[in-house]
Every structure is written in structure tokens, then in C-alpha cells.
Amino acid sequence: MADDDFETYSQLLERAKAELPHEIEAHERMKVPEPDIMTEGKTTIIRNFGEIADIIRREPEHILGYLLRELGTAGTLEGRRALLKGNVPLVQISDRISRYLDEYVICSECSRPDTRIVKDGRIQIVTCETCGAHRPVRVRKAGKSQEPRVLQEGEVYDLQIVDIGKRGDGIARKGAFIIYIPGTTKGIQVKVKIVKISGKIGYGTLVT
Length: 208
Description:
It contains five helices and 13 strands. By secondary structure, the protein is of the alpha+beta class. It has two domains: about 35-145, Defensin A-like; about 155-205, CATH 2.40.50.140. The N and C termini lie far apart (about 70 Å). About 20% of the residues are buried. Mean pLDDT is about 85; it is low at about 20-30 and about 140-145.
């Protein structure tokens, strides 16, 4: 390719990037709200299910079907809410929604969520509207959904404080989780009860 041709191509590429809509840049990191759940008797209700479906741009029926299979329960849609049979912990619902994003939403090439699902026969293809990449829906290895979590809400763990956060809370690690524990100092070993988990972030309190 001649130098003049290369310069022309570079100029065209830069012009194309400049004309990309701001929405694409803004969607580089998707902000999915934590499921807002409540229990009524033996039913778990996801009150913001419609909002989650809107943000990830997938049909509520498709998301719910995935959750029911993964959680091994029954359920229905009621307006913009999802009703699950049984008392399903928040941590399990959040974990399955995160897996849904990995399998059905996030582009494997540019890691953006601007994708859509198309069917090629029986195969579902995730097609990226940003970079043009496409891939079949990932199939996780058998048994992966049964792997135990490294961290569980309500459990007590022996942890070492390895760092201090910006707000002064101690930071410990367990597996892929980062855990914040108020009232601790770097280098000490403590017993910690996990009171909340959000994604790969845990929050704990000291056990005396």
C-alpha cells in the first residue's frame, strides 16, 4: 500500500470514529442494577425485573427462562415483575444474571453490550452492533453451575487484611472476591461475617 493510500485510509478511519454516536461510547460499561427482591410467603419477587431487561435489551421471557433453568425453580412474569417459586437468595439471582450477561449479551471481542441475538437454525448467535463480531451462545461445561461459591452471605471466615481502602475500611481477599471490613488495620488476621455480596465485592463485619 502506498504512503498516500495509507494516509487516506487513516484519515477515513479517524473520521469514522469521530462520527460514532455518543451512545456507543457511553455503553462501553453496562450498569445493571442489583435485583430488587422481596419475599411474599414462598414466592420471591424481582421488583425491577423489567428495568433490568430494558437495560440489557433482551426479552423478559428469555431472561426469565434462563433464570428458572439455572435456579431449578418455576416462575412467571407479572407485569414488569418476575415471580419465582420458593425463597431464592439475592446472591443466587445476581450470580445467574451475571452469567446471562456473559452468555447472551457481552461481545467476546470488544466486551461491549451492544449486541443482539439472531438464530441460525437451532444455533443462537450473539452479533455485536459495535465491532461486527459474532459468536454462538457460549455453552458452559457441565456441572459448572453446581460449583460452590467461595463466599456466602451469613458465613464466617478467617481472613487477613491485606490493604486499606480509600474510606479507611480494611480489605481482604478470598478467591476472586474483594471484601471490605470496617474497623480493621492492615496485616491483622480477623474473623469476619459476610453481610452482603454484590458481584465480586463482599462486605463483612468483625466477629468477636
